[in-house]
């Protein structure tokens, strides 16, 4: 039979390779083991101002939502190349952003504030900037996720200053939505709040209260967007996974309230960790986070089966990433492996922190010239939504992932060599050759990934 296979092969040569290993790779094309969204690849843009610093490094420059150069041709062309790219506007200070709509007339700028959330004061999204952002996204074909301030109407608990209590006040958000609709601006999804779940980071909201708040958001979205075919999705909670909090939240939302259950991942640790480069190339370390992905997926399946798990933000190393590692080629070992791992574990979307900004941008902070991890565009173009099971009995330093090809019949395989001393001679085996009875049946069905494929 004809064989059509796309191979993405990543290898980093830090040392001389001294040995070779023959590996037989079995791609099981009988059935898919998971389904991703057609636009699985996603990137974020944050609110951080230029004076956001970590460890004496201030890597954000003019990449914040309020000051990003939307006329930059390199930035424009990078986004257009994905055709389309899903972008999430949000981040740590999302829950202290007010919008210059409705009764919100004053529009304050970012200011350092002792005792403020993440050290900054409340800041405003000007109406003019909202217009500029949408004009830019319309020209570049972006599928927009917009994170809403979930703390309006709430106040700090007397007993616990990290805990915010009270009902969400949606008035300012409703004014923004109504204006957005009146201008014909497209929103793919609204997400409520940033990192307010479980233990929280700068602030925390109780799981039952958050379920109540996001239910209110769903009612508002349904009311303002009566045409279900054009209605934005509702996402949440957009924070770090805690089993007890997540299960309580999911138990307290009715069917249809949330479309995507978003969680954040920074499994490499702090950006100043001197062992970061070794973690990135250690398959045993990288595999540890799989338990989180499995647990999230299982919770969603058990409590909200109508929804799907999303990685709403993932930057590898937290606190703006590593200035020596996160923007380099070696970071691709972590990034590509997580794309493969999360898709295998039934996550629909994966949002990389960031498109530009911090040390972990897909694009350079000042020039917008692509960093090596822009190779995610190959995933976007080649990997289809149907995820296939891949197995081999070789070294764990060889990672392998496979999907039905995105365009046309075929299978696309991603191979990652994490060893600095071994090359792998890989031969592909179609499981139809292992199971002739299944082969006959699937040939009649023209195969999962199309006719005449591996």
UniProtKB/TrEMBL annotation:
Pfam family, one: Glyco_hydro_79n
UniProt GO MF annotations: hydrolase activity
Any GO CC annotation of this UniProt entry: lysosomal membrane
Primary residence: membrane
Subcellular location(s) per record: Lysosome membrane; Secreted
Keyword terms, alphabetized: Glycoprotein, Hydrolase, Lysosome, Membrane, Secreted, Signal
Entries under InterPro entries matching the protein: GH, Glyco_hydro_79
Secretion signal span: 1-20
UniProt topology in membrane: Peripheral membrane protein
SUPFAM superfamilies: (Trans)glycosidases
UniProt-listed Gene3D superfamilies: Glycosidases
Similarity remark: Belongs to the glycosyl hydrolase 79 family.
Biological role: Endoglycosidase which is a cell surface and extracellular matrix-degrading enzyme. Cleaves heparan sulfate proteoglycans (HSPGs) into heparan sulfate side chains and core proteoglycans.
Protein name per the record: Heparanase-like protein 2
Species per Swiss-Prot/TrEMBL record: Flemingia macrophylla
């Amino acid at each position: 039979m004809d064989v059509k296979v796309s191979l993405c092969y990543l290898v980093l040569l830090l040392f001389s390779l001294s040995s070779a290993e023959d590996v037989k790779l079995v791609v099981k094309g009988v059935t898919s083991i998971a389904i991703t969204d057609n636009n699985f690849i996603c990137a974020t843009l944050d609110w951080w101002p230029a004076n956001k610093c970590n460890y004496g490094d201030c890597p954000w420059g003019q990449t914040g939502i309020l000051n990003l150069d939307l006329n930059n041709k390199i930035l424009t062309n990078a986004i257009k190349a994905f055709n389309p790219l899903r972008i999430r506007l949000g981040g740590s200070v999302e829950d202290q952003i007010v919008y210059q709509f409705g009764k919100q007339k004053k529009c304050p700028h970012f200011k350092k504030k002792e005792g403020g959330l993440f050290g900054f004061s409340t800041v405003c999204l000007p109406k003019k900037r909202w217009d500029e952002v949408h004009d830019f996204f319309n020209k570049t074909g972006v599928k927009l996720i917009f994170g809403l301030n979930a703390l309006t109407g709430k106040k700090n608990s007397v007993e616990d200053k990290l805990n915010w209590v009270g009902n969400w006040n949606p008035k300012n958000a409703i004014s923004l939505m109504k204006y957005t609709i009146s201008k014909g601006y497209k929103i793919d999804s609204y997400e409520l709040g940033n990192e307010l779940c479980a233990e929280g980071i700068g602030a925390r909201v109780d799981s039952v209260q958050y379920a109540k708040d996001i239910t209110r958001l769903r009612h508002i979205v349904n009311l303002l967007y009566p045409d279900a075919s054009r209605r934005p999705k509702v996402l949440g909670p957009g924070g770090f996974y805690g089993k007890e909090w997540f299960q309580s939240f999911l138990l307290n939302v009715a069917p249809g309230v949330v479309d995507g259950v978003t969680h954040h991942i920074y499994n490499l640790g702090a950006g100043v960790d001197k062992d970061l480069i070794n973690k990135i190339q250690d398959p045993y370390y990288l595999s540890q986070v799989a338990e989180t992905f499995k647990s999230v997926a299982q919770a969603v399946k058990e409590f909200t089966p109508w929804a799907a798990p999303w990685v709403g933000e993932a930057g590898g190393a937290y606190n703006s990433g590593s200035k020596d590692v996160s923007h380099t080629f070696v970071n691709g070992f972590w990034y590509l492996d997580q794309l493969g791992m999360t898709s295998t574990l039934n996550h629909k979307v994966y949002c990389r922190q960031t498109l530009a900004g911090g040390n972990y941008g897909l694009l350079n902070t000042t020039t917008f010239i692509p960093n090596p991890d822009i190779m995610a565009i190959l995933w976007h173009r080649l990997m289809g939504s149907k995820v296939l099971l891949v197995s081999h009995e070789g070294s764990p330093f060889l990672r392998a992932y496979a999907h039905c090809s995105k365009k046309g019949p075929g299978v696309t395989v991603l191979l990652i060599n994490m060893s600095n001393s071994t090359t792998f001679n890989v031969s592909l085996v179609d499981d139809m050759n292992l199971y002739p009875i299944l082969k006959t049946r699937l040939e009649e069905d023209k195969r999962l990934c199309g006719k005449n494929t591996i």
